[in-house]
Amino acid sequence: MTAFHQVVLLTFFTSFVCVICTEAEEPWVMVKEMGPIGYQIKSVKKIKQNPDGEESTFVSLIQAPITTTAENGEDLKLVSTQEDGLSAVYEITTVYSDISEYPSYSLTSKTEKLHVELDHLTGRDGEQTDFELNDFQLQVEKRDQAESTMYKMTIRDCEGICYFSTKIGKYTLFGFKEIRDYDDQRKYVKMGPYYGTEGNDKICSIQVNRAALRQDGVNIRSLTFLNDCQAQNLNFIYMATYGLKLI
Fold first, then answer.
1. In a domain, 239, yes or no
2. Torsion of the alpha carbons at 30, 36, 38 and 39, rounded to the nearest 10
3. Do residues 35 and 138 touch, judged by C-beta distance below 8 A?
4. Is the domain of 163 the same as that of 122?
5. What is the CATH number of the domain that holds 186?
6. Whether residue 124 sits in one domain with residue 241
7. Is residue 123 domain-resident?
8. How far, in Å, CA of 61 to CA of 137, rounded?
9. Domain residues for 159?
10. DSSP assignment letter at 111
């Protein structure tokens, strides 16, 4: 082997090793292992309040993290605490009379959120105990790169779309000035590049452009991954939107 070939081979080998080192320095870190989410809907009862059917009451029993509260002031009653001491069963009552809007409630805990839209158009009364949301499993991974941070979500047993909500903006002399326009937010936070399926699982991702944030002096106050679980059959829940707080 000539000296020239030795140099070429050494250069190639060194470059290859550097690529491996670079990739090894940027592993995916597990944020949440594949498994159930923190919310389980135990039952929903629908009760008509008058013969005309213009007003009805939904009573929901939900297992949720022990720190759960109602976002919009709904009356959330503690029914029982689970043996693990980390979750509890709560009762929430929703009364509606406006048939033009889906009655709903929103729950939040330290790291998770749940927004439920009830289907008042379902003609029957009674009780339901089987819900698509209870089959939903989620895995979340995070990878920090030189100029960005990537979150990759693997979704199992939930039909719906994934997206995010964020509170982003600049600190000024008059307080925090939020960037509300979605197109403006996309410079700093956006969906992708991972999106598709792996077997029966759905994959989606969120990318945070730390370089752009730093350059423009923009701060992220919060970033929440959201996933809609839409009912596939006629039942008392029209849509359940799950949220996991990433930042």
1. yes
2. 150
3. yes
4. no
5. 2.60.40
6. yes
7. yes
8. 20
9. 136-228
10. S
User: What is the rounded distance in angstroms from the CA atom of residue 151 to the CA atom of residue 213?
Assistant: 17
Whole-angstrom distance, CA of residue 245 vs CA of residue 175: 23
- For the stretch 197-220, pLDDT in tens is 888 899 999 999 999 999 999 999
Same structural domain, 125 and 238: yes
The answer to whether position 77 is within a domain reads yes
Tokens 């439920």 belong to which residue? 116
Q: What is the pTM of this model?
A: 0.84
Report the number of distinct structural domains present in the chain. Answer: 2
Cα 190 to Cα 148, 158, 185, 226, distances in angstroms: 11, 22, 8, 13
Do residues 152 and 145 lie in contact, with contact meaning Cβ atoms separated by under 8 Å? Answer: no
**Percentage of the chain with pLDDT > 90?**
62
Q: Indicate whether 140 belongs to any domain.
A: yes
Distance between first and last Cα of the chain: 55
Distance CA(63)–CA(72), nearest Å, equals 19
Whether residues 45 and 116 fall in one domain:
yes
The region that residue 7 occupies, defined by phi over 0 for left and psi between -120 and 50 for alpha, beta otherwise, is: alpha
Half-sphere exposure of 247 (CA within 13 A, CB side): 18
- Taking a C-beta distance cutoff of 8 angstroms, is the pair 118, 125 a contact? no
Q: Is the same domain home to 156 and 222? A: yes
For 53-109, what is each residue's pLDDT tens digit? 567 789 999 999 999 999 887 889 999 998 888 999 999 999 887 666 788 999 999
Q: Write out the two tokens for 10.
A: 């050494």
